[in-house]
Amino acid sequence: MKINDPKMGRPATQSLAPSPTIVQNNQGNVPMSPDTMQDDQRIIYFAGEIDEHAATATIAQMFLLSKLSSVKPIHLIINSPGGSMHDMFALYDAMKFVPTPIQTIGLGKIMSAAVLLLAAGTKGMRMIGKHSTVMMHQAWYGAQGNVFEQRIELKETERLQSLAEQCIATETNQSIEVIHAIMEKGLDHFMTADDALKLGLVDSIL
């Protein structure tokens, strides 16, 4: 049987992050994506849905920049409606694995699965645009098939939901109870930049 990939909320738009390509820079021929990464400024732009394609491209860029310098920060600019929880955790684990400081900057919309990525930046380096919107909600359960398959998928969705709550609680220094109370409402919980700052998702407002 095929397990659906749980989403944080409803399906979002297609990702805009391209796959890495081979370009010339001062290090020689190296894989990078010229549309989403500027090597000199060490900037990665993440726009669109969090899916396997976007996560793989972004992780490749982070690993490359970390290899070029483990001291200079990586600047991850996020404008995303959310997406796949599995790919969200792939990005989250990669961010925690690289030794390089990662500055996260939320601009526009930072919603659903993207919220954890914003909060996962290096403490003291997480920022958000003054007029940006943050939204948190429960995982989207879109199971199909017979009742037994649906039970399996529901169990997996609940596991990922609980794990996401734990990670957000860790990144914000909030209790699990506080984060769970926001999630369990079952509604889209919208926040301003000030709200995100108070919750601990970011450290400063642009």
Structure notes:
The chain is α/β, with parallel strands linked by helices. Helices cover 37% and strands 22% of the residues. The protein contains 6 helices and 10 strands. The strands form 2 sheets. Strands 3, 4, 5, 6, 7, 8, 9 and 10 form an 8-stranded mixed β-sheet that branches. α1 (52-68) packs parallel to α2 and α4 (147-172) crosses α5. The longest helix is centred in the last third of the chain and has 26 residues, at 147-172. The protein starts with 20 loop residues before the first strand and ends with a strand.
Name the poorly predicted regions: 10-32, 34-38
Q: Helix and strand string, N-terminal first?
A: EEEEHEHEHEEHHEHE
What percentage of the residues does DSSP assign to strands (E)?
15-25%
Which word captures the global form? globular
Cα gyration radius (Å): 17 Å
